[in-house]
Amino acid sequence: MLFSTTFSVVALLAAEASAHGAVTSYVIGSTTYNGYQGFSPASSGPTIQRQWPDYNPVLSVTDAKMLCNTGTSAALNATVAAGGTVTAKWAQWTHQQGPVMVWMYKCAGDFKSCDGKGKGWFKIDQQGLTAPPLTSNNWGTAVVYSKLAWTSTIPKSLAPGNYLIRHELLALHQSNTPQFYPECAQISVTGSGTQVPSGAFLTSIPGYATASDPGVLVDIYSSKATTYTCPGPAVWTGDGAAATHAKRFEA
Ligand SMILES: *[C@@H]1O[C@H](CO)[C@@H](O)[C@H](O)[C@H]1NC(C)=O
Ligand SMILES: [Cu+2]
After folding, report:
1. Are strands 31-34 and 161-171 parallel, antiparallel or unpaired?
2. 188 lines ligand 1 (CB under 6 A)
3. Which of 39, 55, 229, 247 has the greatest CB tally within 10 Å of its CB?
């Protein structure tokens, strides 16, 4: 009796763990960079990814884990040319309602001292709901579900330097119980860009949205909404687009 109870709890926990996900590798140019493949402590070799502890979601917008899912440093970094692409890959992913948001943060110096703190995070890419209803699979996370990959372009005009790139899946399949899945990697951006976003494009993590933000606190089953706005700032794409967005925000 005791055994079977313990067994079913363990089985349940195992099922839970296997039902979530995390970024487990990156493809940049023709190179694949391994991320972490298993739970902490890592059995993987050195990676460009900051280590996450497990596949479980972060459940609070104010949790320190929102930053990089606990990871604070990584041994390696990957070089990517501004205008090039970064593809994140997930070994597994199971939810199909909620947005994908991809963020970057410019490090002041080397990666060791780059803690991701302060109002330095900006979005380079996101996909929320492309067509109603909210209960459909017309979401960014549904693309990750089918492809187990997400490709973003590093803005061509972005200034070179050391950056963190943070992939965030926000799963909304449980009413008013948002689940955040963020992982970070270290990338060295090259090129002749001169721009870095400012003002309304920048935010802190944690802190980019409140728990009651309509993009965070959602009941997809009872809501009559036909559109969805991703939480946080507008996406910064660089060049002219930056100025247009900035003006709209200041108005
Ligand atoms: C990034 O990685 C390269 C090797 O690929 C290394 O030479 C360089 O020092 C690293 N940069 C930082 C800031 O750690
Ligand atoms: Cu899950």
Report:
1. unpaired
2. yes
3. 55
- 97-110 pLDDT, tens digit per residue, is 999 999 999 999 99
Top mutation candidate among 26, 162, 188, 189 for ligand 1, by most atoms within 8 Å of CB: 188
Element (H, E) at 140: helix 140-147
Q: Whole-model pTM?
A: 0.89
State the distance from the centre of ligand 1 to the C-alpha of 91, rounded, in angstroms: 26
Task: Answer whether 47 contacts ligand 1 (Cβ < 6 A).
Answer: no
Q: What is the DSSP letter of 66?
A: G
For 229-246, the pLDDT digits (tens) are 999 999 999 985 444 433
Pairing of strands 100-106, 23-28: unpaired
Residues 158 and 191 sit within 8 Å (Cβ to Cβ) = yes
User: Does 178 have pLDDT greater than 50?
Assistant: yes
